Amino acid sequence: MTEAEWLTCAEPAPMLEFLRGRASDRKLRLFVCGCVRQTHLNAEQTNRVLRVAEDIADGLAVDKERNELLEALYDPEEGIDAIHIDLLIRSPNTRWVDERVADEARVVGFQTVPFQSLNHRRTEWQKIVQSEHARQTTTLRDTFGNPFRPITFSPEWRTGTAVSLAQQMYESRDFGTMPILADALQDAGCDSADVLDHCRGEGPHVRGCWVVDLVLGKA
Questions:
Q1: Which domain holds residue 139?
Q2: Which of 23, 87, 143, 153 lies at a CB distance of 3.0 to 4.6 Å from 208, suitable for a disulfide?
Q3: Are 104 and 30 in a shared domain?
Q4: Residue after which a domain boundary falls, among 117, 144, 171
């Protein structure tokens, strides 16, 4: 894969293949969580699973809470949701991530185009799945940045203001103050157009965003 392909690719699979052996388990898990979070905004149980999965990525999850969630998911009355269980128990790798985000894109298609009408509206369904794949690549680039141009992040840019803003966004999962973070970094002497443009761009941003991770010293 070339840099131009990375920046324009609309399918996550080749990008994930390029990341094979380069991406940390934490980043891969947070990428999946980011994709799922964008398509399950109002599902209480899903949000709970995602919070625990994100804590697992950061080594913060408590076994008791994870096991309680797994018990609930395996309850016949609750039903078994494979992607939820995977988020809680699987060790990420690029193939697993590719399978999960591909399934998520198909789910979005099925939710939008009724299954019984797929034979008559397959083209519409395929367009929706392609659109979801494109959105996933945006999330992937938010998580991993541009691997062809790694950023050397100066410690001087990690001012109290910048770290506080990044930490608040990371914990709240609300990235509305990214432009303010750009201002704080610029005030601290950051002259990286990639960093500043990403903060001021349209987003969306998810937990694991490469700029926020750089400010917080996460890998």
A1: 3-144
A2: 143
A3: yes
A4: 144
Tell me phi and psi for residue 48, to 5 degrees.
Answer: -65, -45
pLDDT digits (tens, 9 = 90+) for 79-128: 556 778 888 888 888 888 888 888 888 777 766 766 656 665 777 778 88
Residue 218 exposure: Cα atoms within 13 Å on the Cβ side: 23
Q: Does position 153 have pLDDT exceeding 60, yes or no?
A: yes
CB atoms within 10 A of CB 80: 10
Would you state the structure tokens that stand for residue 192, as one six-digit string?
């990286």
Which residue, of 116, 144, 172, is where some domain finishes?
Answer: 144
pLDDT at 74 over 80: no
Check if the beta carbon of residue 16 is closer than 8 Å to that of residue 98: yes
Helix axis angle, 44-57 to 82-89, nearest 10°: 20
- Cα angle 103-136-134, degrees, rounded to a multiple of 5: 105
Residue 103, domain member (yes or no): yes
In a domain, 149, yes or no: no
